[in-house]
């Protein structure tokens, strides 16, 4: 709080005080009072006004400076009412009351929003589980009748439905995961078996090496992440050469690194910085297979929650490689 700005704001009141002082001096002079009492009276009035304004400035300065400082330091600005004391001057009390009421209203709105979001998420999860039952039944019927064109479409619907479920959960994934030792070989085998029909249909060869390692992760979320890698690779293979997916792991003293590489159409260099952004489809998403741009966005969110690093390397028309990094922590390791 600056004195110059405070005085500028109080200019009207100070002008009134000065006018009153001049009027008193003129009034005293009109009654032929000697100059000494007039000067003393004017001096007393001027000192009283200066003292009053200075005292008011210092009292408000301490409060508002602390208020501004707390606002600048706080990450969550709505906690400001808990950080400052109730002021002892009237307009400060009004401000404090307004802040408290605004904070209370905001908390009520947030609580209501959270309830509504929680209810909606519960409904989505219930809906997904319910709709997966008829989808599984339709897939089984299509296999029995050997109708591949319907099987493929139903599989795509099932993948989209699964994405809805994981998207609904990914923001609160920390409430639904258990970190323990997970076998990369087992999780990737389950992912490959789930996509075996599409691998055979597209004549894609799958090569794995050194996956007989264990990493600290959650098996369910890791299975979804690897499933998204597989789905993206199968979606963007070139018809000019035989598709191939190479998956291998490297172990280091402080981490385990999983490499997932395909020889598909690759990702343009200009798109690489944005592939983890929500709804980003890029150039490949507009060619051939349609893309929602949500898969890698969900994957990135899950990796952040699980503490896994993820990066992508690619060269258009040659390859795409996704690198998933698992940290090592002996404290959590099962002996």
What does this structure look like?
The chain is built from ten helices and seven strands. It is of the alpha+beta class and 335 residues long. Among the domains are: 3-85, no CATH class; 180-327, Heat Shock Protein 90. The strands form two sheets. The chain has a five-stranded mixed sheet, covered by helices on one side. Strands 1-3 form a two-stranded antiparallel sheet. Strand 6 (309-315) and strand 7 form a beta hairpin. Helix 7 (184-194) packs across helix 9.
| CATH fold node name of the domain at 180-327 | Heat Shock Protein 90
Radius of gyration: 35 Å
Number of distinct beta strands: 7
SSE topology string: HHHHHHEHHEEHEEHEE
Helix content: 55-70%
Specify the biggest β-sheet.
Answer: 5 strands, mixed
* Level-1 CATH class name of the domain at 180-327: Alpha Beta
Distance between the termini: 61 Å
Give the number of helices.
10
- Helix vs. strand class: alpha+beta
Model regions low in confidence, pLDDT < 50 over at least 5 residues: 331-335
Note the overall shape: elongated
CATH architecture of the domain at 180-327: 2-Layer Sandwich
| CATH superfamily grouping of the domain at 180-327 | Histidine kinase-like ATPase, C-terminal domain
Kindly estimate the percentage of residues that lie in beta strands according to DSSP. Answer: 5-15%
Strand order across the biggest sheet? 2-4-5-7-6
